[in-house]
């Protein structure tokens, strides 16, 4: 118990206007679905129904792809880069102007703490549009030849963990390169994508350049299998990524995949331990651990393991779990009942297989989907919790003795998205960074993102990069 | 006066730096353009393909860990050896039906292509990497790295095509298993002899001769292969191979228009590169 309790400091939700139901955004207008199916989107922190979301049918997807094709052929493809740039700059400004509203909406819809949606998601969303806006009229200088061409119509499917940020990662580079898009947000987190549709209208973006079709897996499948798209960009689970790669086989569709991860966060005995603890906490409890690059495997050098775990537990006891709209909240709600089940199942497997489970004393709200920050010690490499992506606030601790053993264990995974290194010795950082088979290596920091820095995985974490000059390649015919 | 009786060459596989026969004990007949017998080539089996992957994986750490300068030196050494064996390659290409002038031009082009790629080893990092100006106090840079073990299905251009797909894969530090042209496999084994005498570590390049339809499904589905170059794959095999490659999300380079004499560009190198981004805080 701390000396001073925190008084509740909830952000007002009054700024957000959620409609009772939403149609599809196709060809610059709200369009009713050809089908009847709708699902309810709930607030994961309260289980209250927020809105009814349309499940786009194959015919709706057809319609959206046709609108995107028309816009590509007649308006967006032929448009000079400097004008595309201006549209993207406009969108970036509109996002900044409406950032508070969008942050609140994101937290209500997704369950993530307002502290994160306000300070991380929204600034990065706007930054991505600013960054790629500047590329739109400089593509011949990007290193892909003097006359790089857009690919055409991109079908994009994004996950529920960073709804608006993933939208920005997908749409900004696609549009900058002259492509048009049909985007399908995740079924549980469509609201900010639908708000983005309104921003496209406020920016006077030509009709059909951005189309948003909501729905679940079936809608996504109809989109990625549609013969009218030239490119598939997917972020989500490795299993779905595999299915998409199979479905694109033998076609001319280009494909980029950002898939799962099981990142190792490696702490050496000379690391600044308190800093490292902060990094570990940020690595796994940021966004409730709903992060593909989360540092879910902590590899700590044996000689400091006991002390580090001790400090980690003390720090975890100060994490505040609860109302996502409270400005003091560190860990919000799990995004859905289904995801909560998955986290519970894998955590139970951790106990069954012999790992030792610990959570700080922590009172969880009675309604909504919640999971206390959890750490497993005495984890073996063969345990499911050390191998499978949990996508929740669950950390597995393993130990090592030598740097070589740390490399071996860190790379002992089919994934290769990210990794962390904590040591005060620069030469060791560079040695280790060279050997880790991962697309992003954070040294003495974790979970840092920037539109100028390429992000993406090795091995079964997918292929292609998002961000930076490298992120353009996915959307250019090179 | 009797003519000298030639000593003929036995064409074998090239795995882990050695020249074994196929473990299956099989071979197939390679004919010249007129349909006359040239040689028996080894008919590699699924087991040979797996052995080759093991050899390629074993060689990956050492080869990718060498300095780019050293890899460049070794690739250039390959070009030197290739140059020294011009006559042999011209003869082999002529046996496959090329006219003397065309065979000679193709060998020249193959040597030049190899030299071109050799020079890339120590430039890829500068051209494909970047220092990223992020909005915060971080030192942030991205570097290209090899993706791992690449299975290459070579096209039927038996020397220039082979060199054009092989050199871009290994110059960045990948190791590979190459399925040689099925109708014209002999220059690939002769090229293996060049590689074997060029300081290229054993296992960096492994050459299988045999049936594409028999070998490629195992390579495409192999969980320790990271990428697939489908250059020489016939149309009807592309879809099933891509589907198999999805099993462990291999990077796949689809077959393109085969203009092997055109400027190669950098696309074949970048297809088998990863980008690693490293962050570190800046402060005092």
Q: Characteristics of this structure?
A:
heterodimer; A: 478 residues; alpha/beta; Aldehyde Dehydrogenase, Chain A, domain 1; Aldehyde Dehydrogenase, Chain A, domain 2; 2 domains; seven-stranded mixed sheet; five-stranded parallel sheet; 14 helices; 19 strands; 16% strand; globular; B: 284 residues; three-stranded antiparallel sheet; 10 helices; 10 strands; 42% helix; 18% strand; Ald_DH_N (chain B)
Distance between the termini of chain A: 59 Å
Mean pLDDT of chain A: 97
Strand content of chain A: 15-25%
Indicate how many domains the architecture of chain A comprises. Answer: 2
Spans of chain B with pLDDT under 50 lasting ≥5 residues?
none
- The oligomeric state of the chains shown is heterodimer
- Going by helix content, strand content and strand pairing, the class of chain A is alpha/beta
The SSE order of chain B reads: EEHHHHHEEEHEHEHEHEHE
Spell out the CATH superfamily of chain B: Aldehyde Dehydrogenase, Chain A, domain 1
CATH fold name of chain B: Aldehyde Dehydrogenase, Chain A, domain 1
CATH homologous superfamily assignment of the largest domain in chain A: Aldehyde Dehydrogenase, Chain A, domain 1
Uncertain runs of chain A:
none
Number of domains of chain B: 1
What's the arrangement of strands in the largest beta sheet of chain B?
7-6-5-8-9
The main sheet of chain A comes to: 7 strands, mixed
Give an overview in words.
- The complex is a heterodimer of chains A (478) and B (284).
- Chain A is of the alpha/beta class.
- Chain A has helices at 58-76, 81-97, 99-110, 114-135, 163-176, 191-202, 217-224, 238-248, 273-285, 302-316, 337-352, 384-387, 403-410, 426-435; strands at 21-22, 24-26, 29-31, 38-42, 49-54, 149-150, 153-157, 180-184, 210-212, 231-235, 254-258, 264-267, 297-301, 356-358, 374-377, 394-400, 418-422, 440-443, 476-477.
- Chain A has a 7-stranded mixed sheet, with helices on both faces. A 5-stranded parallel sheet of chain A has the order 9-8-7-10-11, sandwiched between helices.
- Chain A is globular, with a radius of gyration of 22 Å.
- Chain B has one domain: Aldehyde Dehydrogenase, Chain A, domain 1.
- In chain B, the strands form 3 sheets. A 5-stranded parallel sheet of chain B has the order 7-6-5-8-9, sandwiched between helices. In chain B, strands 3-4-10 form a 3-stranded antiparallel sheet. In chain B, strands 1-2 form a two-stranded antiparallel sheet.
- At the A-B interface, helix 8 and strand 18 of A face strand 4, helix 9 and strand 10 of B.
